[in-house]
Amino acid sequence: PSVKAWWKESSVYQIYPASFKDSDGDGVGDIPGIISKLDYIHQLGVDIVWLNPVFESPQVDMGYDISDYYGIHPPYGTVQDVDELIQRLHERKMKLVMDLVVNHTSDQHQWFRNARSSINNPYRDWYIWRKPMFGIDGKPQPPNNWVSYFGGSAWEYDEASGEYYLHLFAKEQPDLNWENPQVRSAVHQIIRHWLDKGVDGFRMDVINFISKDPSFPNAPITDPASKWQSGAKYYACGPKLHDYLRDIGSILKEYDAFSVGEMPEVSDVQEILNAVGYDRGELNMIFHFEIVGLDHGAGGKFTCGNWEMRDLKAIVSKWQTSMHENNGWNALYLENHDQPRTVSRFASDKLEDRTRSAKMLATFMGFQSGTVFIYQGQELGMPNVPRTWSIEEYRDIETLNHWHEITRTNPDDIGLHSANLAEYRMKSRDNGRTPMQWDASTNAGFSPVKPWISVHDDYTVWNAALQVDDEESVYHYWSNVLRLRKTFPEILVYGSFELISPEHSDVFSYTRTSETGCALVVVNFRANKISWSVPEPTRERFPSGKTILSNYPQETRSVLDSVIQLAPFEAFL
Ligand code: TEU
């Protein structure tokens, strides 16, 4: 029942500008660097490039703290460079999607500087200010107990005015007050400005946080160890979210623009359908966090958690079937600039396993229903940071704030320190931020000088140059996946999804079905041989099935066999 749309048939390549390609030798990637690599991206077979924020910013949170939505952060280039990028992409029939970060701005944005300057400034109400509570000691306390994503209270005290402002992320990222119509129209103006310049759409940062419960109630205690608690139920998918998204959606519609909203903290399908349902006029699709949260422990992201196959199956199957049946649409992703690398996380990054692992994960995700997002380096099977990394190597504010807090409160607990370092090597956002490995030359061909963050030291054996020249590489496998989606859109884009062998604890299998045919995907997530009994109904549906793609190309698999012995990390379509 899926209505057809160009953005459903497209695939997206995500570029993290700081770590993609440095053209001017300052150790930081830039837009001219991206332009120099467009053939590489085009040959992969993607249709859209999504660029993480390149706007003017003090870079407290790698550009998610914007100080001018109309200017470009100088190390990344100029507005003219963006114009050229748009032109070069359009020449190749590709599109550009930019990052819209409007839940908050930088504290250095002129709006916030004005707001902070006095209670009576006309910009004061563009942000969220509240009077303090007072403790028994008579000292001002934050107006409620909400925690910030980057640690501590979500409120920062402004001495000069004696009020607190809200920041769900760093204190340098004050939240905008969307209740104020001037804020909304300023955002609409930013959207129109970039669309008028030829940008083809937006990825919208934490877009489901923009409407908050204006009474700012205390959050229930979910983390007894902490003074500060998650207020998500009062700001995720808040009361006016859909009004705000409809306003944005109607502008995007004028331009037939692409939209994907980032929506943490939601697992309710109906909530998402309200935003992405085909007739809602809001967004095309959203990123949910259920898969990438599977290995977070009870005490949060940096505590130990093992993902379970049955949970992965339940989550995938839930989103796949509910979006299909209700004319919504999925965004398919496993990696991005906030997530560790998937070969390390869900399979194996050992050199001898890595190619098979990466192809297995490509097969698992690449044939599901939805728009595919590939994060730079994922098409090569890049791994997490090396095990040798000490805390000095990390750059990410989330990781460093966490470390400073742990070491401040437990200065002598060496065991705790090393346990946390181990968690960072698994989950820190920096795992996805090491520079692209282009070739075996100095600094992986990313930059002639030492980059802002260390290059992974496996680049001499793991890089794009080797893979582009090798038909058996992860890069070519991904391009085959994308090509197959274009060859069989009825089945692989619009077909329905059914989970096969739901109870199997090692094998992930599903079918995609349309009136024109059906496809079967079988994936062994384990590093050892696994036997899989082909269910009777599956055998009947594929009487003459042939293997179209496999990470063991020499093997032919027949689902007419009642039991298949799958090789380590084997995957086929
Ligand atoms: O991330 C939002 C978010 O909730 C998480 O992904 C969060 O950044 C972190 O990973 C929690 O562990 C978006 C951006 O993708 C992220 O890079 C920004 O730091 C954040 O918003 C603030 O703008």
TrEMBL record:
<keyword id="KW-0462">Maltose metabolism</keyword>
<dbReference type="Pfam" id="PF00128">
    <property type="entry name" value="Alpha-amylase"/>
</dbReference>
<keyword id="KW-0326">Glycosidase</keyword>
<dbReference type="InterPro" id="IPR017853">
    <property type="entry name" value="GH"/>
</dbReference>
<keyword id="KW-0378">Hydrolase</keyword>
<feature type="domain" description="Glycosyl hydrolase family 13 catalytic">
    <location>
        <begin position="14"/>
        <end position="433"/>
    </location>
</feature>
<dbReference type="GO" id="GO:0004574">
    <property type="term" value="F:oligo-1,6-glucosidase activity"/>
</dbReference>
<dbReference type="GO" id="GO:0004575">
    <property type="term" value="F:sucrose alpha-glucosidase activity"/>
</dbReference>
<comment type="similarity">
    <text>Belongs to the glycosyl hydrolase 13 family.</text>
</comment>
<dbReference type="GO" id="GO:0005987">
    <property type="term" value="P:sucrose catabolic process"/>
</dbReference>
<dbReference type="GO" id="GO:0033934">
    <property type="term" value="F:glucan 1,4-alpha-maltotriohydrolase activity"/>
</dbReference>
<protein>
    <submittedName>
        <fullName>CAZyme family GH13</fullName>
    </submittedName>
</protein>
<dbReference type="InterPro" id="IPR045857">
    <property type="entry name" value="O16G_dom_2"/>
</dbReference>
<dbReference type="GO" id="GO:0000025">
    <property type="term" value="P:maltose catabolic process"/>
</dbReference>
<dbReference type="InterPro" id="IPR013780">
    <property type="entry name" value="Glyco_hydro_b"/>
</dbReference>
<dbReference type="GO" id="GO:0004556">
    <property type="term" value="F:alpha-amylase activity"/>
</dbReference>
<dbReference type="InterPro" id="IPR006047">
    <property type="entry name" value="GH13_cat_dom"/>
</dbReference>
